[in-house]
């Protein structure tokens, strides 16, 4: 599935910057398709109407119908190995010739091999898997397992988190875009706490140790007061991006152990090497009870996600927790298995760590004196630059961030704006050092040149 060029949280479809871009930069071959798209698709935030077209996607690059090329530093978090990796394309074609589908209750080699491979790379006793077609469904499977294993139904999760667009996933999620429009109640028992690194928190500027302790204690407090929580579900590193404070997840892991709650880690955008480790939670020296994967698992070509649980959580044999039509599809399984092989063979996890450190250092060095930069943060090849009006109180600079975005898009770089003001940069792990430098040049120049 080809990505869209832009996906900026909170961006208005009628903003002046967007109107200017559409008027000035969209070519004659793209305009008719954009109009047809707007007529044919239901409109929604972050999706339709679109701001350009896609005709080609190759490696780091996407190209519109008028031949304009962009480096893609967003990719909906699917393009870890770049678009159209030749080994992956060949594997999918061969699998189509060999076996294209498997109806439920019949197994096949690629599906079993993929489940075994996930058990091999996952730490601890994470070794029992169920495949779904998307991350939202994988998270809902995880929640069903937690209910069955604990006999409880309540959850604790974080405001501003994103766990998918399904009703159950939106209920435990905390992002307003996916909750505010839903008429009537969401799932009962979905308790939420403030996220770590929340700018409204009074401990936010007290240092990472104090901040992390305060947030983790709030999770423990809610688990204790509720007394019957099935699971805590969370992103190990928020993809906006926000890195957890030191010791945060160890404290939450211990609280879950004390209160009898499971810990579910949603690694759908952050897993498989994006942060410089195979799983983002490995940075924090913990092992969850359940981990969910998706997005990049299909190699940027096919949709597949996975829920991977501890062996002793295989407790749902007498009922259905995910009767998905493509549960053991041999083609999507082959795509995922080949993607994991490419990540290992090309050393992409270590590459992500190395290039991510380089990018962060360069941004910190060259933007240190820019007063509209509030923070530079991230791990591996998932990093961001927070744009502010006032560095002292970190007043969000949403309008300036949007202006910077369109300046970068005009220069040939696409990425995502998170939380209205965070330039979120997430290139494929296969990016060359030269292309990374070129993209950083574009971002740094735009930040410095947009009026402060």
UniProtKB/TrEMBL annotation:
<keyword id="KW-0663">Pyridoxal phosphate</keyword>
<keyword id="KW-0808">Transferase</keyword>
<keyword id="KW-0032">Aminotransferase</keyword>
<dbReference type="InterPro" id="IPR005814">
    <property type="entry name" value="Aminotrans_3"/>
</dbReference>
<dbReference type="InterPro" id="IPR015422">
    <property type="entry name" value="PyrdxlP-dep_Trfase_small"/>
</dbReference>
<protein>
    <submittedName>
        <fullName>Aspartate aminotransferase family protein</fullName>
    </submittedName>
</protein>
<dbReference type="InterPro" id="IPR015424">
    <property type="entry name" value="PyrdxlP-dep_Trfase"/>
</dbReference>
<comment type="similarity">
    <text>Belongs to the class-III pyridoxal-phosphate-dependent aminotransferase family.</text>
</comment>
<dbReference type="GO" id="GO:0008483">
    <property type="term" value="F:transaminase activity"/>
</dbReference>
<dbReference type="InterPro" id="IPR015421">
    <property type="entry name" value="PyrdxlP-dep_Trfase_major"/>
</dbReference>
<dbReference type="Pfam" id="PF00202">
    <property type="entry name" value="Aminotran_3"/>
</dbReference>
């Amino acid at each position: 599935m080809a990505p869209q060029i832009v996906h900026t949280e909170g961006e208005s479809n009628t903003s002046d910057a967007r109107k200017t871009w559409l008027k000035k930069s969209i070519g004659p071959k793209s305009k008719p398709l954009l109009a047809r798209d707007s007529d044919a698709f239901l409109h929604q935030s972050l999706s339709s109407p679109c701001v350009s077209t896609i005709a080609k996607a190759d490696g780091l690059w996407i190209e519109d119908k008028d031949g304009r090329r962009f480096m893609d530093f967003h990719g909906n978090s699917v393009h870890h190995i770049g678009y159209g990796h030749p080994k992956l394309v060949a594997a999918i074609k061969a699998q189509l010739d060999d076996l294209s589908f498997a109806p439920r209750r019949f197994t096949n080699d690629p599906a079993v091999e993929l489940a075994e491979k996930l058990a091999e790379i996952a730490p601890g006793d994470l070794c029992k898997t169920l495949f779904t077609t998307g991350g939202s469904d994988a998270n809902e499977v995880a929640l069903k397992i937690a209910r069955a294993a604990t006999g409880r139904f309540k959850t604790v999760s974080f405001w501003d988190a994103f766990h998918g667009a399904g009703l159950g996933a939106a209920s435990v999620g905390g992002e307003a875009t996916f909750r505010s429009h839903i008429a009537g109640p969401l799932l009962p028992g979905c308790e939420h706490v403030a996220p770590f690194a929340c700018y409204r928190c009074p401990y936010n500027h007290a240092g990472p140790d104090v901040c992390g302790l305060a947030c983790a204690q709030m999770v423990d407090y809610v688990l204790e007061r509720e007394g019957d929580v099935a699971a805590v579900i969370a992103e190990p590193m928020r993809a906006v991006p926000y890195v957890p404070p030191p010791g945060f997840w160890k404290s939450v892991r211990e609280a879950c152990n004390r209160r009898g709650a499971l810990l579910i880690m949603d690694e759908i955008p952050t897993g498989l090497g994006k942060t410089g480790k195979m799983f983002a939670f490995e940075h924090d020296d913990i092992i969850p009870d359940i981990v969910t994967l998706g997005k990049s698992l299909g190699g940027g070509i096919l949709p597949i996600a996975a829920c991977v649980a501890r062996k002793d959580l295989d407790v749902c044999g007498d009922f259905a927790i995910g009767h998905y039509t493509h549960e053991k599809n041999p083609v999507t399984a082959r795509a995922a298995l080949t993607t994991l092989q490419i990540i290992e063979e090309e050393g992409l996890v270590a590459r992500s760590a190395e290039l991510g450190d380089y990018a962060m250092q360069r941004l910190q060095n060259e933007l240190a004196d820019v007063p509209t930069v509030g923070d530079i943060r991230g791990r591996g090849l998932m990093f961001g630059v927070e744009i502010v009006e006032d560095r002292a109180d970190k007043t969000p600079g949403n309008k300036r961030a949007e202006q910077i975005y369109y300046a970068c898009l005009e220069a040939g770089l696409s990425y995502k704006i998170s939380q209205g003001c965070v330039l979120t940069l997430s290139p494929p792990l296969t990016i060359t050092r030269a292309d990374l430098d070129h993209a950083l040049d574009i971002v740094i120049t735009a930040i410095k040149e947009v009026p402060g």
